[in-house]
């Protein structure tokens, strides 16, 4: 029999499929922006479960919602609806452009639903010729075969046989390339309003507005993948609000459940009509546990205090990272928005982002990478100033270590 005392990192290699290569330590407890491993060593968490733990670890509002719902109702399937699902959908539609919500368990599933809906809408409304989906190089939309093909990183989609067809890519922020490609055969354009996995790349506001106009001119849907940018991450509930551009379909996950798996696709009544009963579904999508937790997260995140606080924290991070860089000269720029930030390597440290991540772990701070050239920070939206200072002091030691090697 296996108990906690005998569980170790080596055992992972014996029992798990080797598609992940996790850290050598095993986290066992989290509170706020701090995490502890099996040895009792403490870390400041700037990774946030890859932009998921938007209220940190074990936030009282989430714990309370989960405990309360766990004693009422766990799962029914979509043969029935449930109160938490309806309440959350009402809050999401009242706070956004959308009228209708579809629930899934992850960002990939929300994106899969968005893409299937766009195709169904185009075929029913315009005919079989309107199938083309355009997305952007270095984009990331999930790991299902459809979403990974729409994502603009062939390394993730190659090697699995024939890919779904009628999907094409152009460079992000290159409106001329999109103009050349888009036509009346285009059913949808899918984009992140700030590329996350692709290196924390912000769009030009004029570019996003031009994408919207091109979609209008060609009767194509604009799909915003807000899985990473959404739910307060950039300082508004969703990033589209700050761009002054409204998509036709929006996808949300990651921070939506604050750590409990849930995804959602949001759209208008007119477009939603095309997912009639039987056209799409999810066994667990909209289950009462996930929706109850997500509703509790929503009530904390969608407040002036939290959203303004994100912008304040962005300034603290940018100022302190700039100070570190002045001393050690390793980054070419600090980019991103809100608490989705990237420190891009300069020429001297090109390709070495992972070295900073590993050194960070040694010094008690958890960070992420976005490709080989960017260290990514996606901490809790309510992380304290004290935790930011402490975490960045530890990160500075990590930078010093890499520079000294």
Helix/strand layout:
Layout: H1 9-15, E1 27-31, E2 34-37, E3 42-45, H2 48-51, H3 60-70, H4 83-95, E4 100-104, H5 107-125, E5 132-136, H6 145-150, H7 154-157, E6 167-170, H8 175-181, E7 186-191, H9 205-217, E8 221-225, H10 240-243, E9 249-252, E10 263-267, H11 269-272, H12 288-301, H13 304-328, E11 331-337, E12 340-345, H14 353-362, E13 365-366, E14 368-369, E15 374-377, H15 385-404
Parallel strand pairs: 3-13, 5-6, 5-7, 7-8, 8-9
Antiparallel strand pairs: 1-2, 2-3, 4-10, 9-10, 11-12, 12-15, 14-15
In DSSP terms, counting alpha (H) and pi (I) runs of 4 or more, how many helices?
15
**Coarse structural class:** alpha/beta
CATH superfamily of the largest domain: Type I PLP-dependent aspartate aminotransferase-like (Major domain)
Strand order, sheet with most strands? 4-10-9-8-7-5-6
Describe this structure in words.
With 405 residues, this protein is of the alpha/beta class. The protein has two domains: 4-59 and 304-404, Aspartate Aminotransferase, domain 1; 73-301, Aspartate Aminotransferase, domain 2, CATH 3.40.640. Helices cover 40% and strands 17% of the residues. The protein has 15 helices and 15 strands. The chain has a seven-stranded mixed beta sheet, with helices on both faces. Helix 4 packs parallel to helix 12 and helix 13 (304-328) runs parallel beside helix 15 (385-404). The radius of gyration is 21 Å and the shape is globular.
